[in-house]
Amino acid sequence: MEPAERAQAARDRVPRIDPYGFERPEDFDYAAYEEFFSTYLVILTRRAIKWSKLLKGSSSVQKSMTDMNRTFPDNIKFRKSADPCLQKTLYNVLLAYGHHNQGVGYCQGMNFIAGYLILITKNEEESFWLLDALVGRILPDYYSPAMLGLKMDQEVLGELVRTKLPAVAALMDGHGVLWTLVVSRWFICLFVDILPVETVLRIWDCLFNEGSKIIFRVALTLIKQHQAFILEASSVADICEKFKEITKGSFVMECHTFMQKIFSEPGSLSMTTITRLRESCRAKLLAQG
Amino acid sequence: MAKQYDVLFRLLLIGDSGVGKTCLLCRFTDNEFHSSHISTIGVDFKMKTIEVDGIKVRIQIWDTAGQERYQTITKQYYRRAQGIFLVYDISSERSYQHIMKWVSDVDEYAPEGVQKILIGNKADEEQKRQVGREQGQQLAKEYGMDFYETSACTNLNIKESFTRLTELVLQAHRKELDGVRTRASNEMALAELEEDESKPEGPANSSKTCWC
């Protein structure tokens, strides 16, 4: 087909008014636009096909069923009596993810993440792809059977605290408290059910845009802000209690100020530092076996 | 400052995901029951002081995530436990079968002499029962454990099982406790020794010596 004919054909297929309501200019390149859009359509179609296949596959993820009614029992949209009941949506997303990423399958905690994605996107398929972005790309291997990435990042936080807030590190060492005791849920649930919903969503915006480093910023800010309070602890039980307390109150409720603080309070936190610490912590954990 | 208790023990709840470990704990410490509880992630704990045999015992009860992969985190807590509840759900044959696996984990990670007790929870779910009471008794006998069928929902055998495990731990620590009794008048307590012990023995930065 001649270029002129092709242009005319594209002109016939593409609407004069775009999806946002703007009239297309006289010299609008319909052919180029159509080409751009068709490549994107290919991706969308590929995803849609993948998604429908995933939903059909047989399951090794049945175990996660016990968590469906244990995900946000206090959310009316997740109740069995709700219509539509998001438990079913959640099940579909987690089931599909289990097929898609068989190395990870289902890990408790993913139900909370997927649950939030569903509440926000109100769309099964979109939630699935966002979950995949988090678990498969943005976060280190938090949810794989060995949970090595989770253990690594907890150690990294410990190292950052040792450098930036040595008094807190000394307190933890003095009582022999491993970081895993106080911060596992921060990492695994990405602050869901720990911080207020709006604050979690603001953090997630940064998480999707800037990567997993943001989790350290949030953790360090919480600890630094309440350093004096944490240092009052005189037992293991006290320390655990204080780490629960610091995730409550107006400091975390005022999400806009909180988000500004996470970029100023912890001070410099370069990706080079994080990468280096992650490497050394991972190596140490692997050596311990 | 005077201690509100004579001795501090650490108990651990383990068993498959969804058998009701957190519900048992909430019923015991707060006398609360919620039919749908949020799944436990990682490890959590609650405390309660009970009196056994004239001794005020402060118990720290560690609640763990049941999913197998969380073992990589929870096994670190086995080491300093003095008593362990092995929990299955009477309406889940699978959770009962897995007790074997949990016992072998205890053998591997918990200290020698740790006291164990077998719990068949959700005893109120009679119509869904898959594991007979005698099966529970049989298994407990095999491993030399005490056995209770409990229901956090109806508050069946909750206090009894927690008290029993605490008694067993007390008996196992009889020697140290005789010291506590004689010194009880001057407020000296094993609890203090215990707390000192919980500090790392090695250099401060070695996480290997940590107990949790």
TrEMBL record, chain A:
Positions of the Rab-GAP TBC domain: 41-211
PROSITE patterns recorded: TBC_RABGAP
A GO term, aspect molecular function: GTPase activator activity
Protein name: Growth hormone-regulated TBC protein 1
Main function: May act as a GTPase-activating protein for Rab family protein(s).
A family per Pfam: RabGAP-TBC
SMART domains with a match to the protein in the record: TBC (SM00164)
Record's keyword terms, sorted: GTPase activation
Lineage per the UniProt record: Eukaryota, Metazoa, Chordata, Craniata, Vertebrata
Organism of provenance: Rousettus aegyptiacus
Automatic annotation (TrEMBL), chain B:
Reaction equations catalysed: GTP + H2O = GDP + phosphate + H(+)
Annotated SUPFAM superfamilies: P-loop containing nucleoside triphosphate hydrolases (SSF52540)
Gene Ontology terms: cellular component: plasma membrane
Subunit-structure text: The GTP bound form of RAB15 interacts with REP15. Interacts (GTP-bound form) with MICAL1, MICAL3, MICALCL, EHBP1 and EHBP1L1.
Gene3D superfamilies associated with the record: P-loop containing nucleotide triphosphate hydrolases
Keywords: Cell membrane, GTP-binding, Hydrolase, Lipoprotein, Magnesium, Membrane, Metal-binding, Methylation, Nucleotide-binding, Prenylation, Protein transport, Transport
Region entry Disordered, spans: 191-212
Primary enzyme class: hydrolase
Keyword DNA-binding attached: no
InterPro entries: P-loop_NTPase, Rab15, Small_GTP-bd, Small_GTPase, Small_GTPase_Rab
Name of the protein in its database record: Ras-related protein Rab-15
Membrane topology classification: Lipid-anchor
Known EC number: 3.6.5.2
Region forming the signal peptide: none
Segments traversing the membrane: none
Cofactor: Mg(2+)
Role description: The small GTPases Rab are key regulators of intracellular membrane trafficking, from the formation of transport vesicles to their fusion with membranes. Rabs cycle between an inactive GDP-bound form and an active GTP-bound form that is able to recruit to membranes different sets of downstream effectors directly responsible for vesicle formation, movement, tethering and fusion. RAB15 may act in concert with RAB3A in regulating aspects of synaptic vesicle membrane flow within the nerve terminal.
Annotated compartments: Cell membrane
GO biological process terms, semicolon-separated: protein transport; Rab protein signal transduction
Family named by the database record: Belongs to the small GTPase superfamily. Rab family.
This protein's record includes keyword Nucleotidyltransferase: no
GO molecular function annotations of the record: G protein activity; GTP binding; metal ion binding
